[in-house]
Write a structure and sequence with these properties.
The termini are far apart. By secondary structure, this protein is mainly alpha-helical. It has two helices and no strands. The longest helix has 35 residues.
Length: 74
C-alpha cells in the first residue's frame, strides 16, 4: 500500500466517523427537544395543552351528566 492509499483510507474513515457523530448529535438534540414538550412549563408545551383539554373534557362530561339527570327527573 502506498502512502496515498493510506491517507485516502484514513480520510474516508474520518468522513464516515464524522457523519456518524453528526447523525448521533442530531438524534440526541431531537430527543432532548421532544422530552421538553412533555413537561409542563406554564402554557406552551404539549403537556400543558393536554392537561387543559383533559380539564375541559371533564367539565363537559359533568355538564352532560347533569343534563341527562335533569331529563330523567322530568
Amino acid at each position: 500500500m502506498s502512502a496515498a492509499e493510506v491517507i485516502s483510507m484514513a480520510v474516508g474513515l474520518l468522513a464516515i466517523l464524522g457523519a456518524i457523530c453528526a447523525g448521533l448529535a442530531w438524534v440526541i438534540k431531537a430527543q432532548i427537544s421532544m422530552s421538553r414538550e412533555f413537561k409542563p412549563n406554564g402554557g406552551s408545551s404539549v403537556r400543558d395543552t393536554l392537561n387543559e383539554i383533559r380539564t375541559d373534557v371533564r367539565e363537559v362530561r359533568s355538564k352532560v351528566d347533569d343534563h341527562i339527570e335533569w331529563h330523567l327527573e322530568k
